[in-house]
Amino acid sequence: MSDVLSNAAEYSVSEIAQAVKRTVEDEFGHVRVRGEISGYRGQHSSGHAYFTLKDENASIDAVVWKGNFAKLTFKPEEGLEVIATGRLTTFPRSSKYQIVIDNIEPAGAGALMALLEERRKKLLAEGLFARERKRALPYLPRVIGVITSPTGAVIRDILHRLDDRFPSHVLVWPVRVQGDTCAPEVVNAIEGFNALMPDGPIPRPDILIVARGGGSIEDLWGFNEEAVVRAVAASGIPVISAVGHETDTTLIDYASDMRAPTPTAAAEAAVPVRAELIGYVDDLGSRQRQAARRLAVSARDRLRAASAGLPRPGDLVSTQRQRLDHAASNLFAGLRHSVQDHRVRFSRIEPRLGPQTLARRQAEFGERVRNLSMRADAGLRKTVDRARLTHDPRAERLAASAGRLVERKRAQFDALAQKLSPNALRTELRHAQSQLGPLNARLLSGITLSLGERKAALTQSSKLLVSLSYKSVLARGYAVIKDAEGNLVHERAGLAPGDAVAIEFADGAVGATIAGSPPIKKKPKALPDSDSQESLF
């Protein structure tokens, strides 16, 4: 069969793939695609994100490059219906077309509300909205931090309301209140206020107000971001949220310590009314003064009533004064009587206390002391003499015994020293060696002779045992018959027909049964060999 020639141009696979790629990119350079995100597993290790957009009839692969992913206002989430903006292209290696996404936005307010509700449930489950986390606002904050746009009407309303109620020190942290950078700027503002030192050059606020005017859900979406909610919940400074109008609700309203329906209401909640506070303080002061006056008047009246029932001071001490006067008048008379009594007693004792009497008493006592001293010396000498008479003979006998013992020990020591001298030891050693030599020779000869005798006796006994053993008889052709109990059968009368016997030969034993009783012919005795012994059986 001959080849069929054709005029059609030939293309390589790469050329076809590139042509299709250019056609798709030129025709669909910029598109908006609506669909549900499927197969999203987060960012790849390279930073890119891959997933699929699908509806009920078709699906298309999608990719978000790493640089664009960081700029997305709404991050992809599994099952979320979105509107993706990008350009169509192809992936030649697998012959697929895909959309390279530049921006993602939820597909309508319903999707945003669904995403908002899902995020609210997640943060609620983590406990960020719990009432136990909310703190009481300070009654009179010294410094108020406001996080809002510096050019909007919100900051003017807050400052005007604070000036009307209670002028305070206000620190404004300017942020964008909508757009892609809204959430990071609000987070930075909250963390920045918390990072200030209480005694630093910039005072740390006692309360924070996060405020914004009203708007659509898309405009307020920055305050629904998870990062903003977590920053509000983690703030060490109490936070008042005032985002949107009274009907608007954002996620930071749940996480904040107080939600104000409007920024103006937030300013009213932050500080009390100065005039009312001054009036309240004045009223308290007036009430305090009136109460103090009433207490003073009441105390004065009670004191007067109590003093009316008390006796006069002079009456209270009159009796004691009279007793004191009576005691003072009796004191002098008592002193005179006491002096007279002592004088009489001293006059009675005076004769006994003259110098001669004292000298005589002293001489008597001295004589008594000398007599006692002499008696003590004499008694001591008698005691010593008596002890000497008792102990001197014993001391002499003890000295004699000690001398004899010393002499005996010295003689023993000298004899032992002579025996233990080197020459004496050598002599003793040589004598012992001369005696041990013959004894050793006699011992060896005796042991050798005894061993020979015992060996000969053992050899003779073994020969006798071999000659007397019945096994040597069995080796010559004889057998041994044993009954069922293992006893030897010596004669024919000990067996009966049917008895079981065991016949033992030289190489082993066999069992047998006695069948009959035919006459047994006796064989002539064999002459014993000259080298063997007659049978014992």
Report on this model:
With 537 residues, the chain is an alpha/beta fold. Among the domains are: 13-107, OB fold (Dihydrolipoamide Acetyltransferase, E2P), CATH 2.40.50.140; 140-277, Rossmann fold (3-Layer(aba) Sandwich); 365-416. The chain is built from 13 helices and 13 strands. The chain has helices spanning 13-27, 66-69, 109-125, 153-165, 182-195, 226-234, 251-255, 263-270, 274-308, 313-349, 355-419, 422-468, 471-475, and strands spanning 31-38, 49-54, 59-64, 81-91, 96-106, 143-148, 169-174, 207-212, 239-243, 258-259, 480-482, 500-505, 508-513. The strands form 3 sheets. It has a 5-stranded mixed beta barrel. Helix 4 runs parallel beside helix 8 and helix 5 (182-195) packs parallel to helix 6. The radius of gyration is 69 Å and the shape is flat. Residues 529-537 have low confidence and may be disordered.
Topology:
Elements: H1 13-27, E1 31-38, E2 49-54, E3 59-64, H2 66-69, E4 81-91, E5 96-106, H3 109-125, E6 143-148, H4 153-165, E7 169-174, H5 182-195, E8 207-212, H6 226-234, E9 239-243, H7 251-255, E10 258-259, H8 263-270, H9 274-308, H10 313-349, H11 355-419, H12 422-468, H13 471-475, E11 480-482, E12 500-505, E13 508-513
Parallel strand pairs: 3-5, 6-7, 6-8, 8-9, 9-10
Antiparallel strand pairs: 1-2, 1-4, 2-3, 4-5, 11-12, 12-13
